[in-house]
Amino acid sequence: MGIFDFLTKPSDEKLTKKLVNYVYNSIQTDKGVRVEDALCVMSTIVAERCIELANEFSINQHEFEPGSAVFSEKINEILVGPVAVDNWNELPQESVFATIKRKINSHFDDSSFPALTGIFENYAKNIGETEWGNLSLSIPDDNKPFFLPLQAGYETRKFVDENINLENDEKTLKIVLDAIARVLIETKMALEPKVALTLTFEIINGMAKTATMTDKKMAELQSEKE
To answer: What are the Cα distances from residue 95, in Å, to 24, 69, 193?
Structure first.
């Protein structure tokens, strides 16, 4: 990297702030920003970047049916490490879940975090039981996002690719993890902590194991409506 590349490249902090502001603005309504929707969109962005890091299929082009479950040991390893554990403090420090927890630990007590086994069990038992493009979340109905995660991932992907994904998949994941931690901290007073964290981790897990919407499939769906 040359000196001029260093001088012109935006810092991680600027990219994090840019992504957070983009998410807030993308869901802004006359009534303001609904926290559940901000967390849904941000969690789905995290999930898609985990898929990219796993490199088992492209989020932009694949042969899976969008919205279908795609099981992956590599995704599990990225999220929580190679061995299943019950205690959050036993997670590998480099795992996605541990990284998020470490970034928000000073703002959320341990009792606010959902049971790790519950996150995975809730996803597994509800595969194929929810409407297309959505996930079954173990939170009150009043707190469920208005946005379909599958749609949120597709509609935010171009922005992330063009404005955040400037170096490599590892760096992009680091930035989106910084961003989701910031959203959780900034919105803490607006949503019960356990609900916020359950929503966040269940969407990250579920959407990281879901085939993404692609331009090809979107074009097919639009042509069917015409």
So the answer is: 26, 22, 21
174-192: string of b/e by CB count within 10 Å (b at 16+)? bbbbbbbbbbbeebbeebe
Angle, nearest 10°, between helix axes 96-104 and 169-186? 40
Instruction: Give me the numbers of helices (H) and strands (E) for the chain, helices first please.
Output: 10, 0
Q: Residue 225 CB: number of other CB atoms within 10 A?
A: 5
Q: Taking each helix axis as running N to C, give the angle between helix 149-163 and helix 193-208, from 0 to 180 degrees, rounded to the nearest 10.
A: 80
DSSP helix/strand/coil, 205: helix
**Which residues, other chains included, contact 209 with Cβ-Cβ below 8 Å and sequence gap of 6+?**
69, 70, 71, 72, 75, 123
Alpha-carbon gap, residue 97 to 223, rounded angstroms: 39
Instruction: Place 84 in a pLDDT band, splitting at 50, 70 and 90.
Output: confident
What is the reported pTM?
A: 0.94
Would the CA dihedral through 161, 163, 164, 168 be positive or negative? positive
